[in-house]
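Each letter names a residue; the fold follows as tokens. Both lines appear below:
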Amino acid sequence: MLDLSHNNLSGRISSSTQLQSFDASSYSGNPALCGLPLRNPCPGDLVPQNPKTTVETEDIGDQEDKLIIRGYFIVFGVD
């Protein structure tokens, strides 16, 4: 295990080396580091805006189910 913590490192952790295979704890105390495996994104990285939540997805599914059931009752004349 390589411990690079508290070494005043900065910039993006290279993705083409084994550096990404280390735990995020190996880089603790280097607030200017960014990129995987750390949680802080680097400047210019794309961060998803407003990702759909499970609740929103379920609500859409429920609406579709209700529509299908209503269609069934209309087609077969069931009251």
